[in-house]
Amino acid sequence: xxxxxxxxxxxxxxxxxxxxxxxxxxxxxxxxxxxxxxxxxxxxxxxxxxxxxxxxxxxxxxxxxxxxxxxxxxxxxxxxxxxxxxxxxxxxxxxxxxxxxxxxxxxxxxxxxxxxxxxxxxxxxxxxxxxxxxxxxxxxxxxxxxxx
Length: 148
Fold this sequence. Notes:
By secondary structure, the protein is mostly helical. The protein is built from 5 helices and no strands. The chain has helices spanning 2-25, 32-46, 53-72, 76-93, 104-132. Helix 1 runs antiparallel to helix 3 and helix 4 runs antiparallel to helix 5 (104-132). The longest helix is centred in the last third of the chain and has 29 residues, at 104-132. The chain is elongated and about 90 Å long. It starts with a helix and ends in a 16-residue tail after the last helix. Keywords: Membrane, Signal, Transmembrane, Transmembrane helix. This is HR-like lesion-inducer. It comes from Carya illinoinensis. The chain crosses the membrane at residues 80-97, 109-129.
């Protein structure tokens, strides 16, 4: 059962690690395609926050990469980093709520939004299961008294 759990964590984390690797390779001087896709959606957010899109993409890559690697080793911190990434990225990138339901963008964004919410739910499940399993306590040997 331990191997199946490890394999499941590796396969689940591979979604995030491979995505971070791809975005890192495409990063370039302008932040790559991720920055271009995030740019228009970020404009609304940027009115309130004085930072750059490139830094946000860098943080997203770091959250996915480090979170995915830590998750493979069964770390709750890794799961929390991935949760943070999913929470922020999903609501900003997949803004289906800004489109009319008849537009084609609505369906595409809604599907991606629901897929990311499923990943979010799986991370919550992992954290819940990790915290519900009692930790093993070392048993001390009790010395037996000799009876004559």
